[in-house]
């Protein structure tokens, strides 16, 4: 069942501001929709030139309020701009609810004129969400369903995203996420700060990424910075970037290439298996006093320097073949495995 309330009156809001002798005119159109939706249903929203705020609740209803606002240099200009906004919608089958909105193709917003299409949505937190927004921000409450999301030229500010198969793409904006359970996340030409990750595949480029805590992380990161507070299991490649990991808990399989500085501040006592390839970079590894690892280091056209306490980390140069050096040793009692290969790189133990 679908209840419909439409406010279609065009409201003349202001006619007072002057700029170079021109009277600015603001006009507005509103849309209100209410839908009943099943737990398996999805909400799909595609928008541009506006912000989207999504609240979640335990009701089986989706309530959508859209405000379309234009500002033009004359009444005729404002009226024409309002007519250039398109709004498409479908729903009512208790399953999929769809909204598409934006500005007509080929229409140029210029000369100080403005168009804004803003959404405020209430939806069930257990339902899934498909969302694409350009030139605007997205605020998202806690959600249990899967999220398929793309935000470009705007910011995402999300709470807990608890679905296991999310697919998110963020570009040209600085975003924040409280937590994300699983799926894929792509960040380009921007940045993201995440408090907690459970199991995510990330693909980042030209971005600044900060992660406080991650359980399992598979990552490709290039041209930017990557900072991780603590991670249990990390697998991937970091190129042309600065990497800092405060706590490496259990496992790592990393390729680090053309990085100015890569630092693992604490290799914890629970570390089991660490494999790192370093190319044209500097890597610094710091060991906790309860770390227990058997260690192999190989360098080609580079160097290895053990500056860790000799009472705890012991390393011996076991072989030399031209520009290749081999080192073996251990941290503590040597229970887990650590294997580092460096090419044209410097590796420090501290």
Automatic annotation (TrEMBL):
Q: Determine if Signal is one of this entry's keywords.
A: yes
Give the classification, highest ranks: Bacteria, Pseudomonadati, Bacteroidota, Chitinophagia, Chitinophagales
Signal peptide positions are: 1-19
Q: Does the keyword Signal apply?
A: yes
Write out the entry's keywords from A to Z.
Answer: Signal
Q: Can you name this protein?
A: Adhesin domain-containing protein
